[in-house]
Specification:
144 residues; Trna Endonuclease, Chain: A, domain 1; 26% helix
């Protein structure tokens, strides 16, 4: 999805950060922002405010991963849970299928999978160290 734009929350008290600097990079992210803004069980949320350091398998160097969202929400049992949320197309959430012919597109997919896997591994550990949860949502989860 190549859609991007600015989002202005209606419930400013729930957004943590500068509400004038909220950018969505897909319509799926925008849909999740609407959910966070309007869902009564979401206590507070922020976009790209959590930075997770990770080592890229491509160059072996440290990089910074800006997780799409952090959300504090009330669960159905009444407990408060903090979640790091990444929005991704489901085709990017599994390794690329091996092909007989190695094309530029295939190499790009392999590289993307390697980097994303590293990011998600570090984000999972980052969240667990804080008693949070790291979750990847796809178009299936967002009912698109």
């Amino acid at each position: 999805m190549a859609y991007r734009g600015k989002y202005r929350p209606e419930n400013l008290s729930k957004y943590v950060g500068d509400p004038d600097k909220i950018t969505y990079r897909s319509l799926w992210e925008r849909k999740f922002m609407l959910f966070c803004d309007n869902e009564p069980n979401v206590i507070e949320w922020a976009s790209e405010s959590v930075v997770v350091p990770y080592i890229s398998p491509i160059d072996g160097k440290w990089h910074r991963y800006y997780v799409d969202f952090i959300v504090r929400m009330r669960e159905s049992n009444g407990t408060i849970k903090t979640k790091l949320i990444e929005i991704k197309p489901k085709k990017q959430c599994k390794p690329p299928m091996k092909r007989k012919k190695v094309t530029r597109k295939y190499l790009t997919e392999v590289k993307r999978w390697g980097v994303n896997s590293a990011k998600w591994e570090y984000a999972t550990q980052y969240a667990e160290n804080r008693g949070w949860e790291f979750v990847i949502l796809t178009e299936d989860d967002l009912n698109v």
